[in-house]
From TrEMBL:
UniProt-annotated binding residues for Mg(2+): 254
Signal peptide: none
Assembly and binders: Tetramer of two alpha and two beta subunits.
Protein name: Phenylalanine--tRNA ligase alpha subunit
Catalyses which reaction(s): tRNA(Phe) + L-phenylalanine + ATP = L-phenylalanyl-tRNA(Phe) + AMP + diphosphate + H(+)
Family according to the record: Belongs to the class-II aminoacyl-tRNA synthetase family. Phe-tRNA synthetase alpha subunit type 1 subfamily.
Pfam family, any one: tRNA-synt_2d
Cofactor dependence: Mg(2+)
GO molecular function: phenylalanine-tRNA ligase activity
Cofactor stoichiometry and binding remark: Binds 2 magnesium ions per tetramer.
EC number, UniProt record: 6.1.1.20
Length: 342
C-alpha cells in the first residue's frame, strides 16, 4: 500500500491527479481510512501493532502529498518565469509624438493675448455671401477691390442669377455678423481661414487672418495703436517693438493704415525691433460709418477701430521662416527642422 501510493504521488502530473490520490488513500472512504475503521473489529493486541503502523502510513502519505504539491507549484512558477520573461535592459522603441502645427500655435497665442485685453472670439462661415464679404464692407459690385482680392467664386446653378457665394477673402465679414448679432459696445477678434487665388513665397491660396473689432462711444486710433503695440510686445516677446502706421486705403475703414513692424534680416536671422527693414503685418483703420450701418449700429452714436492681421505672416516673423508655402507642405522633416515636431 505504502509503495503503491508513494510511487503514484511522486509520479502525479498535476494538482488534480494529486487530489484524486489523496481521496483514494486518505479521503473519508479512502483505502487507508477504511483500514483504520477495521481496527475496531480487531483484538487489543492486533490494534496495538496495526494501529500505529496505519497512523504512520497516513502521516507519511499526507506529507508526501504536501511535498509533491509544493513541488508542482514551484515547477509551475518556474515555467511562468521562463515563458513570461522580460528583458528590462532592452532599449525602448521610441514613439513619435504629434505636435500642434505652428500656425495653430500662433492662432492660439494670439487668441490668448487678445483675450487678456478683453477681446472675445467670434466666428463666421468660410463660404460667405457676396453681401457679407463685399457689399456690407462698402465694396459695391463694380469696386476694384473685388478684382484685387483674387476671389474664389462658388458657382450657382444655370439660370440662378443671384450673386455667387465666395470663399471669404478676409475675416472682415465677421465684423458685420458680430455687429448684427451682438450690437454695440463690442470687442471681438476673429481668427480664421481665408482664401485668395494667389501663390508665391509669401502667399498661399488658403491663409489665416485674425480680425479685430472694438466699438464704443469714444474709441480712437490711439486705442488701436496701443492694442497693436501691446499685442506685438507680448507676441514677439520683445519690449522695443516699433510699429509704423502707413496711410492707406480700405473701403471699410476711414482713415486707414497699414502697419509695418521694424525688423532686420541679419544673415538669415530675423530680429524684431531693430534694423532697417519693415515687414507689413496688418491692415487697419477706423470703421467706416457705412459698415457700422450695415451691422445695424448707429454711426452717430458709436465708433470703433478694426484691423486684420496675417497670422501666417507673424508666424513667419516669429520663427524666422522665409517661405510661407512650407507651412502647408506637411513635410515632417521641415516641421522637425524648425522644432515643431519631435
Ligand atoms: N480685410 C483687410 C484685408 O484683408 C484687412 C483689414 C481689416 C483692414 C480690418 C482694415 C480693417 O486686407
Amino acid at each position: 500500500l505504502r509503495d503503491k501510493y508513494l510511487t503514484a504521488i511522486s509520479g502525479a502530473a498535476d494538482e488534480a491527479a494529486l487530489e484524486d490520490l489523496r481521496v483514494q488513500a486518505v479521503g473519508k472512504k479512502g483505502e487507508i481510512s477504511l483500514k483504520m475503521r477495521e481496527l475496531g473489529k480487531m483484538t487489543a493486541e492486533e490494534r496495538q501493532t496495526v494501529g500505529p503502523k496505519l497512523n504512520a502510513l497516513k502521516d507519511e502519505i499526507n506529507s508526501a502529498l504536501a511535498a509533491k504539491k509544493a513541488g508542482l507549484a514551484d515547477a509551475a512558477l518556474d515555467e511562468r518565469l521562463r515563458t513570461e520573461w522580460l528583458d528590462v535592459t532592452l532599449p525602448g522603441r521610441p514613439r513619435r509624438q504629434g505636435t500642434i502645427h505652428p500656425i495653430s500655435q500662433v492662432w492660439e497665442e494670439a487668441t490668448v493675448i487678445f483675450a487678456d485685453m478683453g477681446f472675445a472670439v467670434a466666428e463666421g462661415p468660410q463660404i460667405e455671401s457676396d453681401w457679407y464679404n463685399f457689399d456690407a464692407l462698402n465694396i459695391p459690385g463694380h469696386h476694384p477691390a473685388r478684382a484685387e482680392m483674387d476671389t474664389f467664386y462658388m458657382h450657382r446653378a444655370d439660370g440662378d442669377n443671384r450673386p455667387p457665394h465666395v470663399l471669404r477673402t478676409h475675416t472682415s465679414p465677421v465684423q458685420i455678423r458680430s455687429m448684427q448679432d451682438q450690437g454695440a459696445p463690442l470687442r471681438i477678434i476673429c481668427p480664421g481661414r481665408v482664401y485668395r487665388a494667389d501663390y508665391d513665397q509669401t502667399h498661399t491660396p488658403m491663409f489665416h487672418q485674425v480680425e479685430g473689432l472694438a466699438i464704443d462711444k469714444d474709441i480712437s486710433m490711439a486705442n488701436l495703436k496701443w492694442v497693436l503695440e501691446e499685442f506685438c510686445r507680448a507676441f514677439f516677446e520683445v519690449d522695443n517693438v516699433e510699429l509704423r502706421f502707413r496711410a492707406s486705403h480700405f473701403p471699410f475703414t476711414e482713415p486707414s493704415a497699414e502697419v509695418d513692424i521694424r525688423c532686420s534680416w541679419d544673415g538669415g536671422q530675423l530680429k524684431i525691433g531693430e534694423g532697417d527693414d519693415w515687414m507689413e503685418i496688418l491692415g487697419s483703420g477706423m470703421v467706416h460709418p457705412k459698415v457700422l450701418q450695415a451691422g445695424n449700429i448707429d454711426p452717430n452714436e458709436w465708433q470703433g477701430f478694426a484691423f486684420g492681421m496675417g497670422i501666417d505672416r507673424i508666424a513667419m516673423l516669429k520663427y524666422g521662416i522665409p517661405d510661407l508655402r512650407a507651412f502647408f507642405d506637411s513635410d515632417l522633416r521641415w516641421l522637425r527642422h524648425y522644432g515643431f515636431s519631435s
